[in-house]
Design goal:
Keywords: Cell cycle, Cell division, Cell inner membrane, Cell membrane, Membrane, Transmembrane, Transmembrane helix. By secondary structure, the protein is of the alpha/beta class. It contains five helices and 13 strands. It has three domains: 46 residues; 65 residues, membrane protein fhac (Ubiquitin-like (UB roll)); 132 residues, Rossmann fold, CATH 3.40.50. It starts with a helix and ends with a strand.
Amino acid sequence: MSWREKGQRVRVLLLQADWYLCFGVVFLLCVLVGFAMVAMKLDTVLNDADALPIEAVAVKGERLYTEDSEIQVALQDLMERSFFSADVNQVQDALEALPWVYQASVRREWPAKLKIYLVEQKPVAHWNGDAWLNIYGEVFDAPIKEGIPNLPFLTGPEEQGKSVLTTYQQLGELLRINGFNLQSLSLSPRHAWHAELNNGIRLELGREDKMARVQRFIHVYPKLAQQDKQVATVDLRYDTGLAVGWDDAQKRAVN
């Protein structure tokens, strides 16, 4: 075979290779376009609330203060979305924004249902007048609801909620087992403690030795109760003894 014939054969082979390459590129492009169209169609269907609506929402968890109407408002935007496009994190945030909801969890259940579990705040005390403390000593704001039990009134610096609650529980237990009921407790900006019993007696406890001072009050109270006047205040901010304020504003020293 001459060099000329060899050259012609090589050119034919190169043309065939170019044709196969072009065919392969065109086929690949067609496949990619097909996949893109399918993905767009699938995305449209998955985000179509009419095609894949959320048909049911199941709400579980003990609820005392959160009403169905509040939950419906929180889920209003969700119900306009499809089962797959609904953002469960967004739904969770919307539910936890409700004043009496402490925690919410949301999950999808095939084919068209959402399951929601709510944990409500458990108030244990009023805090600074218009707020509440929960069982963890955390401050939260919520409107007053029917059915909330009588709770103690605690006050103090905003960041001291947990500390005031812990002190209330300790002092309250000591007083309770001795026949008293601690109704309110406050911590001043200078960290002095003031307590009030349900019988109206106010206790000035100062900054230190709160438990020992309350124990001193418990020990001496039977003597005070024998008097013919009602005790108004008992100042326990002394190393020994105490000062008593009576309803007529007269004071007597008791040692």
